[in-house]
Amino acid sequence: MTFTAACGHRSVVTLPTLPAMALPGTLGKVPGKSNREVRLRQLVDDYVHLVARILRNAGTAEADIDDDVQRVFIALSNRLDDVRLGAEKSFLVQTALNMAAHARRTAARRRETLTERPPEVGDLAAGPEEIAERRQTRRTLDRILGAMAPDLREVFVLFELEEMTVTEIAFVLEIPAGTVASRLRRARSDFRERVSLLDGLPRSEVG
Amino acid sequence: MMEDLEHMVDQDISALERALLQEGRSYRASDDLRGHTLAALGLTTSVGFAGAIAWLATKSWTTKLVLALSTVTLLAALPISYAVLVGRVPREAPTPSDVVVVAPPELALPTTPATAPADPIQALSFDRLATSPSAPARASAKTSTALRAELAALDAVRATLAVHDPAGALSFLSAYFRTFPAGRLRFEAEVLRIDALAQAGQASVAKRYAQDFLKRHPNSVLTARVRPYAEP
Q1: Quick check: A151 pLDDT over 50?
Q2: Mean pLDDT, rounded, of chain A
Q3: Using CB atoms, which residue from A56, A77, A144 is nearest to B20?
C-alpha cells in the first residue's frame, strides 16, 4: 500500500507505509477534527527534532531549519488523511529528504558552488584538535556529506546518523534492501576516504 | 544479514570519524522549534499546567498578570479576564461593530472599523505592562522568555476564537501588536487577525488583509492558511 507525498510545489513521491514504525503515541481511534489535532500535535512532539536533524544532515542550512521543518509538517498536515497510522515517520523522512535536496539545489544555483566536488584538503584540514571543536566539526561534516552523491548521502544519513534499519530505509526510499546495503558500503567508503584525507589515516576497507 | 550491519560508531574507527558521526547524531535544533511548528500548524502551544505554574512562580507580577490572563481565557474561554486589568465587571460580549482593529504600522487599511476607545478591552495592553516599574528586569529577559510571552498571547487569541469571540480575539491581537511590534510570531498573529475578522463577519476586511499578506509574504509557510480568505 502506498500514499503520495507532495512536497510543497515541487516533487511528488510515492511512499510505502511502514508498519514497523508505529507512532509512539496511541492516536487516531476516531476520525474528526479534535483527533486530527491531537495526532498532529503528537507527531510534532515525537518527530520535530528528527525532521530537523535529517534536514540539517541532508544539507539544509542552519538558518533555514525552522522554516523547512514547518514546511515538512505543513505538508504532513495537508495530507494527513492520506497517511496511514504508523506511516507518518516514513512520510516525514521522505518529505524532509526531498526538502533538503531542493534546498541544496537552490543553494548550489545561488552560490554557484560545486557540491559534488570532493572537498579540498586545504579547505578542511585544520588539525584534529581544532576540528574536534564543535563548530568546525559541523562544518567538516557538512562538507563531507555535501560532497557525497545524493543517493549515497541519503542512505548514509538514515543508517549511520538516524540509526534506521536497512529494511526501514528500503521502505522509505522504495529501493531493494540489497541496493540500500550496497549504497551504504559505497557511502561508508566515500566517507572514510574523505576523512582519511584530513586525518592522515591510511585508507581502509569498508565493510 | 543486512540487518546485522553494524553502525560505524560501534566499530573501530578513527577519533575524527567518531567525532563527525557523533556531531551528526547529536544535532538538535532550537528549543523554540516545537512551538514555532505548532504555531505554523495553527495549533495552540499549550504547556503542561504544572509546568506553566512552575514557570509563573519565577516571574514578576506583571508577567504573571499577562499569563494569568491567557490562562484564564484558555480555561474559562471567556473575555471576563479583561476585567482583571481594568477593575470592572465585564459587559456583554462586544458586537462586531465594537471591534477595534489596530493595524500594524505598515498595514493601515482604509476601511478599518471605527475605534471605540472607551471599550474596557482597549485597556488591555501588554505594552503598558511592559513599561511598568518592574519592566527593567523584563527588558533584560532572554529571547526565549519573550517568545514564550508571545506564544502565551497568541494562545489566548486562539482560545478566544475557539469560543467564537472574535471581538475578544481582535482586542488581544491589538495588545499583541502594540507589545511586540517586531514579534517573532508576528506573521502568525497576522493570520489570526484574518481568522478573527472573518469570524466577526468582516469578510471584505479579512480579504484585504489576506491579499496584502500574500503579496508581502508569497513564500510564507502560512500562505495555505491565508489563501482561502483572499479568494473571491
Answers
A1: yes
A2: 76
A3: A144
* Grid coordinates given for B153: 498571547
Residue B220: pLDDT band with limits 50, 70, 90: confident
Report how far residue A187's alpha carbon sits from residue A155's, in angstroms, rounded to the nearest whole number: 8
Instruction: Using the predicted structure, report yes or no on whether residue A62 has a pLDDT greater than 80.
Output: yes
**C-alpha separations of A191 from A47, A135, B4, B12 in Å:** 27, 19, 20, 15
Nearest CB partner across the interface for A165, out of B3, B25, B29: B3
Chain A residues close to B24, C-beta within 8 Å = 53, 57, 141, 145, 157, 160-161
Of B24, B29, B38, the CB nearest to A49: B29
Is residue B83 pLDDT above 70, yes or no? no
Helix spans in B27-122 (H): 33-40, 49-56, 61-76, 82-86
**The overall pTM is greater than 0.80:** no
Question: What cell was used for A133?
Answer: 571543536
d(CA A119, CA A166): 28
Q: CA A59 from chain center: how many Å?
A: 8
- Indicate the burial class of A1 (C-beta count within 10 angstroms; 0-12, 13-18, 19 or more): exposed
User: What's B71's DSSP letter?
Assistant: H
Interface TM-score (ipTM) > 0.85: no
The partner residues of A5 in beta bridges, in order of sequence, read A13
Q: B33 vs A66: CB contact, 8 Å cut-off?
A: yes
Instruction: Give yes or no for a contact between A67 and B34, defined as CB atoms under 8 angstroms apart.
Output: no
Q: How many angstroms separate the CA atoms of A83 and A203, rounded?
A: 44
Residue B85 banded pLDDT, cuts 50, 70, 90: very low
Taking only residues 38 to 67 of chain A, the set having a beta carbon closer than 8 angstroms to any beta carbon of chain B reads 40-41, 44-45, 48-49, 52-53, 56-57, 65-67
Shortest alpha-carbon distance between residue B3 and chain A (Å) = 6
Q: Which residue has the higher pLDDT, B96 or B136?
A: B136
Cα–Cα distance measured from residue B5 to residue B20, given in angstroms and rounded to the nearest whole number = 20
Q: Which of B9, B18, B28, B221 to mutate to test the interface with A (most CBs of A within 10 A)?
A: B221
Give the C-alpha separation, B48 to B43, whole Å.
Answer: 15
| Chain A residue numbers touching B28 (CB-CB < 8 A) | 49, 52-53
CA distance B40 to chain A (A): 6
Cα of A142 to nearest chain B Cα, Å: 9
